[in-house]
Amino acid sequence: xxxxxxxxxxxxxxxxxxxxxxxxxxxxxxxxxxxxxxxxxxxxxxxxxxxxxxxxxxxxxxxxxxxxxxxxxxxxxxxxxxxxxxxxxxxxxxxxxxxxxxxxxxxxxxxxxxxxxxxxxxxxxxxxxxxxxxxxxxxxxxxxxxxxxxxxxxxxxxxxxxxxxxxxxxxxxxxxxxxxxxxxxxxxxxx
Length: 191
Ligand SMILES: Cc1cc2nc3c(=O)[nH]c(=O)nc-3n(C[C@H](O)[C@H](O)[C@H](O)COP(=O)(O)O)c2cc1C
Hints:
The chain has 191 residues and is an alpha+beta fold. 30% of the residues lie in helices and 16% in strands. It is built from six helices and six strands; from the N terminus they run H-H-E-H-E-E-E-H-E-H-E-H.
């Protein structure tokens, strides 16, 4: 269980304190991210971390539902492009896969440093790219909101409850199999 600790501890928490994240800590997260494996060592990930005035500009791109992100102490944009990594037969485009692995390293190091780290897709891509000067053809996949834990007072009731709620996961039986595929692995039709 000890090995799982940072993995268990990481969760999509929203109660940021508003305190800035020091540059030397952000540098450590970057070092962890780039140690991820990638297909033929293509390293297709690119990260742009917003601090200072860029952070304030980037926060204007957050969706209404992600209002809580206004208190993030830094935000890292996760960028890639399918052409920046191997594109093999049978839909095996590795840029997104490899960038996801680097993003997980980044988050786990953030947890180790005593931060909260919450990945989001809910933002205006055009505004976010403009805030950070990210080229139009690059894919801005996600933002990683970073910060220290603070009071949950500014959260709505649903988000307050979710801070300490039980983790919600599909049963292992629906996502893992041994030796052969089984029908339970097919996603269930949405109700
Ligand atoms: C690609 C991606 C996009 C997400 N977008 C949002 C978002 O816009 N807003 C939000 O509150 N949470 C977002 N989340 C967080 C997920 O809702 C959360 O990870 C999931 O419910 C599981 O909870 P856990 O991370 O605490 O285990 C996103 C997560 C990922 C990986």
